[in-house]
């Protein structure tokens, strides 16, 4: 007779957080080796040291059903950089403010109001909004209007798949999004930097395009507060400010919705905001960008050419056929 | 002839070393990889900031002397001004060599077309004749023209502050007060000179009447 195998002692089970980052940890140890021998470290080592710890991993792990669609093999941005260099003015205008000042923000429980020209409207909990859709990982370039860029593995679902469930009517020509407005949890709201709440919008065909992603996570885990928890938009062929964060309202509208940056400085930030190296921002060129990726030590040679539609022209250029992209910047 | 112990002359090497400290700190951060996710932007920001700070310190020497009655202050002015030029040059070199690295064909278009870069570059250009004529020999040679030439510091300081203000994204000036603070300090330093200028022109005016 066979005896059942003895139970595995708890001490031999790798904690989940360590297991999830096993590759990073191995890499970190490999990197740390020479530095330890040479006796001189740099900031990369402290990040490496973090990898062996388990405390500061953002969010919870997500189950990803599908990977690889539209993926790029460009060097990815480090998790730490993607979560500590953010524009999220509701938490302050400094790049490090969102990471430092979003600790009081509560992304749970969450619900989204669906309104406007659709057959199904009303309040939906985040769980109900996401439930029917398997999560996908999409590795996208993200190009900020400030001429820097990142490469980030997002986790989400195509926005169009979600929107279709609400059966937008023929009058739904645009989709408008609104960010939550919670002064007690968002210290940046005390400054009239923009007209709050933050608002963004897409044309319905842009919203339904399979590249447009409703994002719930990055690097395999739920979104940290500073990246727009618990639900944000990612439109990879547009400047980053179109990727509205912490969405609480989705509105199907007939006319072009007002958007926050366009409202504040219409001559600098248009409704379309498609990445376009040929149309400069009035104060700086958009021809090239500084890529924030890799080990963060590449002081030289991190400037790359900006591509039309951020490199997604083959998928989306047809959406704008016949449009003057200089007038509709 | 034995000279009296000159405290200011003795202190100059220390002031010189102190002016190099920001550069040492920035270099240390760079070596440690401590410049953050966008290290080039940080390098540009820090070197530009120190150029502006030293420029404002240079401009503060005269009003502070009048305020405190300590005439020795003026003897540090040249060193502060030259260090302002030094940091501005490092700032420009970082932008041209490290930031625009590999895209040098873009340089002329950038300088010509981007208002904030045009203005910053112009401020740096205007510093060149001032740095070049900062020696005692040049002072003697230029005579009263030297002072006229060195009044360029006022417009170039205005350009430098504009350069800082204009590169900030819209709306940030409301929450990020830094560029606004520098603009305010410059305004105070310029305003402090207005009574002097008025007096000068007033004296000349009354002198003409007496003749």
TrEMBL record, chain A:
Keywords, sorted A to Z: Metal-binding, Molybdenum, Oxidoreductase, Signal
Entry annotated with the keyword Protein biosynthesis: no
Post-translational note: Predicted to be exported by the Tat system. The position of the signal peptide cleavage has not been experimentally proven.
Matches recorded under InterPro entries: MsrP (IPR022867), OxRdtase_Mopterin-bd_dom (IPR000572), OxRdtase_Mopterin-bd_sf (IPR036374), TAT_signal (IPR006311)
Enzyme class label: oxidoreductase
Positions of Mo-molybdopterin binding: 86, 89-90, 144, 179, 227, 232, 243-245
Protein name, as recorded: Protein-methionine-sulfoxide reductase catalytic subunit MsrP
Gene this protein is translated from: msrP
């Amino acid at each position: 007779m066979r005896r059942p195998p003895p139970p595995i002692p708890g001490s031999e089970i790798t904690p989940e957080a360590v297991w999830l980052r096993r590759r990073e940890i191995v890499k970190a140890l490999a990197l740390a080796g020479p530095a330890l021998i040479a006796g001189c470290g740099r900031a990369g080592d402290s990040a490496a040291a973090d990898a062996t710890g388990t405390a500061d991993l953002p969010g919870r792990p997500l189950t990803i059903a599908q990977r690889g669609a539209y993926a790029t093999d460009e060097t990815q941005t480090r998790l730490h950089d993607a979560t500590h260099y953010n524009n999220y003015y509701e938490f302050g205008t400094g790049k490090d403010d969102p990471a430092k000042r979003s600790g009081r923000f509560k992304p749970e429980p969450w619900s989204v109001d669906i309104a406007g020209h659709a057959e199904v409207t009303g309040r939906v909990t985040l769980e109900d909004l996401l439930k029917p859709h398997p999560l996908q990982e999409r590795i996208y370039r993200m190009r900020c209007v400030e001429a820097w860029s990142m490469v980030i593995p997002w986790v989400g679902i195509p926005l169009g798949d979600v929107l279709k469930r609400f059966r937008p009517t023929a009058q739904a020509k645009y989709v408008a999004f609104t960010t939550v407005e919670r002064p007690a949890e968002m210290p940046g709201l005390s400054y009239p930097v923009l007209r709050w709440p933050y608002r963004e919008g897409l044309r319905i065909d842009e919203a339904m395009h399979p590249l447009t992603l409703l994002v719930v996570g990055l690097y395999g885990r739920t979104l940290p507060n500073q990246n727009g928890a618990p639900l944000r938009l990612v439109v990879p062929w547009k400047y980053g400010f179109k990727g509205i964060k912490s969405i609480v309202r989705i509105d199907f509208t007939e006319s072009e919705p007002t958007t926050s940056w366009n409202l504040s400085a219409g001559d600098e930030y248009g409704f379309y905001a498609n990445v376009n190296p040929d149309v400069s921002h009035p104060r700086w060129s958009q021809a090239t960008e500084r890529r924030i990726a890799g080990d963060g030590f590449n002081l030289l040679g991190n400037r790359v050419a900006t591509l039309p539609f951020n490199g997604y022209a083959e998928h989306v250029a047809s959406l704008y056929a016949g449009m003057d992209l200089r007038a509709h910047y | 002839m034995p000279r009296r112990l000159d405290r200011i002359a003795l202190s100059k090497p220390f002031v010189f070393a102190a002016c190099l400290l920001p550069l040492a700190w920035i270099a240390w951060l760079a070596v440690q990889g401590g410049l953050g996710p966008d290290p080039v932007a940080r390098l540009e920001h820090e070197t530009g900031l120190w150029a502006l700070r030293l420029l404002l310190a240079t401009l503060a020497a005269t009003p502070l002397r009048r305020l405190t009655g300590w005439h020795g202050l003026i003897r540090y002015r040249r060193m502060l001004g030259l260090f302002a030029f030094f940091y501005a040059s490092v700032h420009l070199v970082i932008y041209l060599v490290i930031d625009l690295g590999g895209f040098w064909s873009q340089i002329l278009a950038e300088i010509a077309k981007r208002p904030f870069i045009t203005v910053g570059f112009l401020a740096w250009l205007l510093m060149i004749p001032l740095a070049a004529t900062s020696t005692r020999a040049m002072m003697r040679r230029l005579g009263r023209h030297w002072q006229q030439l060195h009044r360029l510091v006022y417009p170039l300081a205005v350009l430098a502050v504009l350069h800082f203000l204009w590169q900030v994204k819209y709306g940030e000036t409301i929450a990020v007060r830094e560029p606004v603070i520098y603009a305010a300090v410059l305004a105070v330093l310029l305003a402090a000179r207005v009574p002097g200028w008025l007096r000068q022109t007033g004296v000349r005016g009354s002198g003409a009447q007496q003749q």
